[in-house]
Specification:
The structure is a single chain. The chain is α/β, with parallel strands linked by helices and 224 residues long. It is built from 8 helices and 7 strands. It has a single domain (2-223), classed as Rossmann fold. It has a 7-stranded mixed beta sheet with strand order 3-2-1-4-5-7-6. Strand 2 (65-68), helix 4 and strand 3 form a beta-alpha-beta unit. Helix 3 (24-40) runs parallel beside helix 8 (192-206). The two termini are 32 Å apart. One of its GO terms (molecular function) is S-adenosylmethionine-dependent methyltransferase activity.
């Protein structure tokens, strides 16, 4: 599966930004993800931050370091951010020393994997993260998918998790500080000309008591 993921993102790298985030759907998702990063991280204090699975560098403003398993993605992010330290690496076995970072964040990675791989990655992030550091990541909501009878058909975006399930696998390394929803409403079904208008309302629901029924969840973990 890992080799397939690498081939997929290598082939997509050149068109990734335009294909995924230049349209109204991508901008909708990006705006909600950005709100969460701005809440917990500062663009002025980035020297000890790592963007794990940094891709083309969509969120590299929040980190000095980036890592990705796709060499083609790395080429693009290095071109865009020549002053950043961007390395080729597997999230399960990173080439960084223990306690190298204050904060680690990762978007659109764990949704492609499984529980065993997620468990190994959070252990590896725990190893490289300092005490009280944050691990911020997104993943589809298990409750939302169960509600709509989702069936996994491929690795692409095929994995999901609930708050309780995550809490069970991170108990020795992290505490859950908070979590936020992304895309409470089915954005793809909303006419394009109205999507921007829905963002404020969607964001309210994504931070309400109903947030675990959002399409995706962004978890904020704190290293013990």
């Amino acid at each position: 599966m890992k080799a397939e993921i690498i081939r997929y993102y290598d082939s997509l790298a050149r068109i990734y930004d335009k294909d995924r985030f230049s349209n109204s759907y991508g901008k909708y998702i990006h705006s909600q993800e950005l709100k969460v990063l701005n809440k917990y991280l500062s663009k002025k204090k980035i020297d000890k931050n790592l963007d794990l699975a940094c891709g083309t560098g969509r969120f590299l403003d929040f980190a000095k370091y980036g890592a990705d398993i796709s060499l083609e993605m790395i080429k693009l992010s290095r071109d865009k951010f020549p002053s950043k330290i961007i390395v080729h690496g597997d999230a399960e076995e990173l080439r960084f020393e223990d306690k190298s970072f204050e904060n680690v964040y990762s978007f659109h990675l764990l949704m492609h994997l499984d529980l065993e791989t997620l468990t190994r990655i959070q252990k590896e992030v725990s190893r490289i993260c300092k005490a009280n550091g944050l691990f911020i990541f997104d993943i589809p909501s298990e409750k939302r998918r169960r509600l709509f009878g989702f069936k996994r058909t491929s690795w692409h975006g095929g994995y999901q998790i609930s708050y309780d399930e995550l809490k069970g696998i991170i108990n020795n390394d992290w505490e859950i500080v908070d979590y936020h929803g992304v895309a409470f409403f089915p954005i793809h079904r909303i006419p394009k000309k109205f999507r921007k208008l829905f963002i404020p309302l969607d964001t309210i629901f994504c931070n309400s008591i109903f947030k675990e029924y959002s399409s995706h969840l962004i978890f904020i973990l704190k290293k013990k």
